[in-house]
Amino acid sequence: MEASSIPSLTPLISAADQWHEVLLLLPVLVGLEVVLSADNAIALAAIARGLNSPEEQKRALNLGLIFALVFRIGLILAARWVLGFRPLMAAGAAYLLWLCANHFLKGEENHGEAPSASGAAVTGNGEAAAQEKAKAQRSLLLTAGTIALTDLAFSLDSVAAAVAVSDRLGLVISGGVIGVIALRLTSGLFIRLLQVYELLESAGYLAVGLVGLQLLLRVIWPSLELPEWGLLAVVGLLFVWGFSRKVAKPEEVNP
Question: What are the boundaries of each domain within the chain?
Fold first, then answer.
């Protein structure tokens, strides 16, 4: 979800006929982007968390969001075509719903089980270490690609709505750039929070499924207008639930 796609901001954006007025709106847009990108950010953080080390997670986020920025700008430039191309919206909805379902079907048993590359280098020979490094590189690229595709699917509806709200291409692209920067900042924060709150990752994937359902409804019933406040309220409740339980410490499990 993007700030520039909210109907209540339409009068403000439409009134910004001069660039100095647009600059006055930027702090509002920045603040809203940070708040409204929370559902996207926690989903991207959960995807990046699948990598073993914090360094790999940061690299995957950086690379994935660079790709995401390119995709967003391309999507904005092609938004008029996207508005009328329902199969693309359906594909985005299917991808988000698959991502959500896949998380809950496979469970979380694989978290933290993969051996580290450094261990392979110590206990194995040079060939084994090289294979482990290549595997880690492929995993990094796959994770970055998943991050970029997830952001693209999240952006389909909101970018189309933003272009419908304002015909100032520069302003819409600026909003997209701000959104990606906000995602990078908040995703890094959520990676740390995912280690503290036990239900937060599941809440993020439920938010992914919610956005997928919203896209699917837009495809099936284009005339259906869903209230933005309703979606925000449901996402807010998901986050309240996600922050409701902390991960038990070892001494709390085995006193």
Answer: 3-246
